[in-house]
């Protein structure tokens, strides 16, 4: 899979996790463990995106 496609896929997952976090946070009985897990996953995906972007900058074009 080309790097750009992988970045788009991860970015979409990151956006979905953000929406999930918003939904969980809206409930008065929000599960703090679930929130923490979603935040960790979101951060992990963000780090993957950043690593791929760095890699794509280093890769020779063509």
Can you give a write-up of this model?
- It is a single chain.
- The chain is mainly α and 62 residues long.
- It has two helices and no strands.
- Helix 1 runs antiparallel to helix 2.
- The longest helix has 27 residues.
- The chain is elongated.
- The mean pLDDT is 91.
Poorly predicted segments: none
Number of strands: 0
What's the main sheet like? none
Shape: elongated
**How many helices does DSSP assign?**
2
From the N-terminal CA to the C-terminal CA, the straight-line distance is: 16 Å
- Summing up helix and strand content along with how strands pair, one would put the structural category as mainly alpha
Element string (H = helix, E = strand): HH
Work out the radius of gyration: 15 Å
Features:
62 residues; 2 helices; 82% helix
Brief summary of the model shown:
The protein is an all-alpha fold and 62 residues long. Helix content is 82%, strand content 0%.
List the helices and strands and how they pair.
Elements: H1 3-26, H2 32-58
